[in-house]
Specification:
The complex is a heterodimer of chains A (about 350) and B (about 375). Chain A is α+β, with helices and mostly antiparallel strands and about 350 residues long. Chain A is about 50% helix and about 15% strand. Chain A contains eleven helices and ten strands. In chain A, the strands form three sheets. Chain A has a four-stranded mixed sheet with strand order 1-4-5-8, with helices on one face. In chain A, helix 6 (about 190-220) packs parallel to helix 8 and helix 7 runs antiparallel to helix 8 (about 270-295). Chain B is of the alpha+beta class. Chain B contains eleven helices and eight strands. Chain B is globular. Chain B starts with 15 loop residues before the first helix and ends with a helix. The chains are: A alpha+beta (about 350), B alpha+beta (about 375). The interface between A and B is large, with 63 and 59 residues. Bound molecules: flavin-adenine dinucleotide (FAD). Flavin-adenine dinucleotide binds near residues 134, 360, 363 and 365 of chain B.
Chain lengths: ~350, ~375
């Protein structure tokens, strides 16, 4: 991370450390909206970070999300960022407050017919708590961006492994105003939305991975067995070193992806796919090691490790699991007209 | 935020694309002229001809000052040169160690005369070095070395033996770690490094055949070998600090995960040729790991460029890189099942050879111990 990113990272770190405490995270899982946290996040300008001309770079945006992930922030921050980015590009002005998005790698099944919006979206993050949901829809053969008020949806509540809302959402011939739909601008399509969502989720994951490492190291230095801190046992040291490797590789890959996307390099798609695949693979390894090192205490609701690991174990499957992105990359690399391997990998 | 989450690959400089293009043209040309077959083991194929061509083009001593024959370019340019050589599988054994660690060590700790004497030859691709660290009873525990250097009226006398000295039978010099005084409580005192001339000093070099039957490493026996005083490198007693700095260079490059790159390339080509959908995921995973390691390795180059200590980042790359190289073997076995049957086949050869890559330059256990120290566990 460069120095400018670091300033933003430090500000975000302070904000989330103060306001996304374990108590707030637990309460959120009981359905209590973290009002103070959300307001500070909005005030800090984090929600609009991805809008064109926000003055916030992609690197800084990802630094904010790393901090959010480090503190298991129970809010739809990447979703709001992406929803506002898409809406702004399409010339829409969504309502104030939290937003969500419906993104998929598949062609959208959502339909607009004479201003009436219909369709089903599965497992929309935080749908029950947001003001509006941004999605792509088809109006005959025109690709549209819609911003639909969430209160007008039929919701079937669901949760992920971390207890975060993942609700099924149905809109049934909802009439949209002019402010609720616009032609999708060039470059805004399903694959773009899906990849961008994957990149943002990767940043939260890297933050959570780093926090799980820190927690496990701290615990290993405190917990004493056989007359010494367990961190003095080489078996534990080497497990934690392996966890450090997972963090470092995921983080460096994320940084490389951020740079490729920010500079609009030809390698951007490959780099983003790799970032999500790497972080998703790291998630399972990290959760296993961090829990092993913590022993039984880490398996309690009380202890904060689970706030991180349950998220990692959920987020790894969001916007493409490691299996998904590995296959995607393999498919690209094996395509008959793909470049030979080294040029394929080294294209900037 | 731990430093583990702050190892960021630097943005590559403007001239990178041109440098790559030049290198690729040079490599294709030299391959036609010299007829080498690609081999991703950086120390696998010794070709003085190739190393001299490389030196003549200014691709050695890339970061060194011009007065010593270098190019005064950045560590990132050097990174690009290194990875292009590895990706092409060029025959790098002759110059690799000299360019990577012996030269930088001399630049940092050597006398002015040593630098003027040796660096230009290394940069021309004419002067080759071995690493004289390991001994029968000093492997991972390098401070246990027993080879002793004793002062004489005209210099030093060396007694003892080194083992696993790669290419000592073809190289010109070995930078050799010796005990010159009491070890002290830390065991790190009383060590010094010496320049041994493998062609003229009376050191005996005995081949040790490796498991493939190849002659790559050697035993170096010092039976009262007399050397002049000016062969001491740096300061007497500072050997531990110096050797650690040398090891940092030794571990810092992309060769720590490129060892099976050529095999990965052929595996991808084979799968592509037969339209093997089932191979997509396994190869995709390898690519993800390769690109992640490359990002981390670039971060190491960034640290070097900024004049920092790349120790932990390099240990991470080396530990994970060694595992990646073995992962490539397993996928290659899956996807080219008929290829692994004889030691003459590239895959068969790799299966026998690649496990040794994790050992040279420090084992994974030692890398993890370095990482654990950074984590504050030791
Ligand atoms: C192909 C090849 C080329 C080489 N070239 C050179 C060369 O040119 N010059 C040179 O000086 N050396 C060279 N070496 C030697 C290399 O540096 C050593 O092999 C390496 O440092 C390990 O030492 P060792 O082989 O004595 O193993 P040992 O140190 O005896 O280790 C054996 C096993 O014990 C483990 N172990 C040791 N200590 C610890 C510990 N504290 N905690 C946990 N586990 C531990 C190791 O990880 C390893 O698994 C080369 C080795 C190879 C394989």
């Amino acid at each position: 991370m460069n120095d400018a990113n670091n300033l933003v990272a430090e500000a975000a770190e302070r904000l989330f450390a103060d306001l996304s405490t374990p108590a707030v995270v637990r309460a959120a899982e009981q359905g209590i909206w973290p009002d103070a946290l959300w307001h500070s996040v909005e005030e800090a300008g984090f929600c609009t970070a991805l809008e064109p001309d926000s003055g916030v770079s992609l690197g800084e945006t990802l630094a904010i999300l790393r901090a959010a992930g480090r503190h298991a922030a129970p809010i739809p921050l990447p979703e709001t960022m992406l929803a506002r980015a898409i809406a702004a590009r399409a010339g829409l002005t969504p309502p104030e407050g939290p937003l969500s998005i419906a993104v998929s790698d598949q062609p959208t099944t959502l339909r607009l017919e004479a201003r009436h919006f219909s369709g089903t979206m599965r497992r929309v993050p935080f749908a029950r708590q947001v003001k509006a949901i941004v999605a792509l829809a088809h109006d005959n053969d025109r690709s549209m961006v819609v911003c639909a008020p969430a209160e007008r949806a039929r919701l079937t509540p669901g949760r992920n492994l971390a207890g975060e809302p993942r609700d099924d959402v149905v809109f049934d011939r909802l009439e949209l105003s002019d402010g609720g739909m616009a032609t999708a601008p060039k470059g805004i399509h399903e694959a773009w939305g899906f990849k961008t969502a994957a990149l943002l989720r990767s940043a939260q994951m890297v933050g959570a991975l780093d926090a799980a490492l820190a927690m496990a190291v701290r615990y290993a230095n405190e917990r004493t067995q056989f007359g010494r801190p367990i961190g003095k046992f080489q078996a534990i040291q080497h497990q934690l070193a392996a966890l450090g490797g997972e963090v470092a590789a995921s983080s460096a890959m994320l940084d490389a992806a951020a740079e490729a996307v920010a500079m609009d390099r030809p390698s951007a798609a490959l780099a983003v796919a790799s970032a999500k695949a790497r972080a998703s693979e790291a998630a399972g390894i990290a959760a296993t090691i961090a829990h092993r090192v913590h022993g039984a205490i880490g398996f309690t609701r009380e202890f904060a490790l689970q706030d991180l690991t349950r998220r990692l174990l959920s987020w790894r499957d969001d916007n493409g699991s490691e299996r998904y992105w590995q296959s995607y990359i393999g498919h690209e690399a094996l395509a008959p007209k793909a470049a030979p391997l080294w040029p394929f990998l080294s294209t900037p | 935020m731990s430093i583990f989450a702050q190892l960021t690959p630097p943005v590559l400089p403007e001239g990178t694309a041109r440098l790559r293009a030049e290198l690729r043209e040079f490599l294709a040309e030299s391959r036609r002229a010299l007829g080498w077959t690609p081999n991703s083991n950086f120390i696998g194929v010794f070709s003085a001809e190739f190393s001299r061509l490389l030196g003549a083009r200014g691709y050695l001593g890339v970061t060194w000052p011009k007065e010593y024959g270098g190019q005064a370019s950045s560590a990132l340019d050097r990174y690009i040169v290194t990875e292009e050589l590895l990706a092409a599988g060029a025959p790098c054994a002759a110059h690799w160690v000299a360019d990577r660690q012996s030269g930088p060590l001399l630049l940092r700790f050597g006398s002015e005369a040593q630098r003027r004497d040796l660096l230009p030859g290394i940069a021309r691709g004419e002067c080759y070095f071995s690493i004289g660290m390991s001994e029968p009873d000093a492997g991972s525990d390098l401070a246990a070395v027993r080879t002793r250097a004793t002062r004489t009226p005209r210099g030093w006398r060396i007694d003892g033996a080194k083992v696993w000295t790669s290419n000592a039978h073809v190289n010109h010099y070995a930078i050799t770690l010796c005990r010159t005084g009491p070890a002290g409580d830390s065991r790190h005192e009383g060590l010094s490094q010496f320049l041994i001339d493998l062609k003229t000093d009376s050191v005996r070099i005995n081949p040790i055949l490796n498991l493939l039957g190849d002659h790559e490493f050697n035993e170096m026996v010092f039976d009262g070998v007399e050397i002049p005083a000016d062969r001491l490198i740096g300061k007497e007693g500072d050997g531990w600090t110096q050797v650690r700095s040398e090891l940092a260079f030794e571990r810092s490059g992309p060769e720590r995960f490129f060892g099976t790159f050529h095999l990965l390339t052929s595996t991808v080509e084979a799968a592509r040729a037969r339209g093997d959908k089932a191979a997509e995921r396994a190869l995709g995973r390898l690519i993800v790991h390769f690109l992640s390691l490359r990002s981390l390795s670039l971060a190491v180059a960034g640290v070097l460029q900024a004049g920092g200590d790349p120790g932990v980042a390099a240990a991470l790359v080396k530990d994970m890189g060694a595992r990646f190289e073995l992962d490539v073997l397993e996928v290659a076995r899956d996807l080219m099942p008929d290829a692994a049957t004889t030691p003459d086949d590239p895959l068969g050869r790799a299966i026998l050879q690649v496990p040794s890559y994790a050992l040279r330059g420090g084992t994974p256990e030692i890398m993890r111990s370095i990482i654990a120290r950074e984590l504050g566990l030791r």
